[in-house]
Amino acid sequence: MKSKIICFLFSFFFFLNSNAQCAMCRAVLESEEGQTAAEGINDGIVYLMAIPYILVAGIGYFIYRKYKTLKK
Known about the structure:
By secondary structure, this protein is an all-alpha fold. Helices cover 85% and strands 0% of the residues.
């Protein structure tokens, strides 16, 4: 249990010190005037992040529904 807590704390602090973008992406997004590329990048990240959650939720619902019908 103690090693799990230490591992969690280490990964949490390591995450805080990391940078989210590569140097080229950061330079392009900071230098643009209209910020349309930055908005596009952010929308793409949200889209890529949402799909796995939707798939896991769908599979979870399917398993719940099957479990509920087997229990009756």
